[in-house]
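In the lab's daily routine, each protein ends up as an entry in a very long ledger. A line of letters takes care of the sequence, but it says nothing directly about the fold. The fold becomes a row of whole numbers, each drawn from a learned catalogue of backbone shapes. The protein below has been through that process, and both of its lines are reproduced in full:
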Amino acid sequence: MNDNEIVALFLSRDEAAIKETLEKYKSYLMKIAENITGSHEDAEECVNDALLNAWESIPPNKPEMLSTYLGKLTRNIAINKRKRRLTEKRGRGEAEVAFEELSDMIKGSENIEQEFDRRELSREINAFLEELPDYKRILFVRRYWYCDSVKVIAAELGMSETGASVTLHRLREKLRKHLRKRGYDI
């Protein structure tokens, strides 16, 4: 079933929308949630909460890109869950490291997730990403959206872990310059 048909099921309040969504997107949403929460059980809970949020928000919303809409719902829920559950004893995972790497980009920000939600900043980051070669864009998005580990991304892109880390560092610096040119105080 394609996305338009699934959205139509949501809009008509047909519960088959949930079943079809799970069938098509469960593994995608689980990957996002597991990368952030570090727990399969928490990820399942996040995916279920995201589906409930989708059910409650469609309508009035009618997402153009269902996968992106569901991914953002899942990601935000997973970030919030991780914040609530994370303690000093449990240590830091990939999500904290990824967010920390970007956190110095914007001064005065209490957390990077709120800044990413601001439309203007999102547009600037998207413009920056569009200028990058495919492999750099994939590297950046996999690290800072999906919170994949540098080791996993490097292996999948055929790079060394050091090479991926250096490239990510250079991309952050390039993004910093891009944002400064556009008037962001970073």
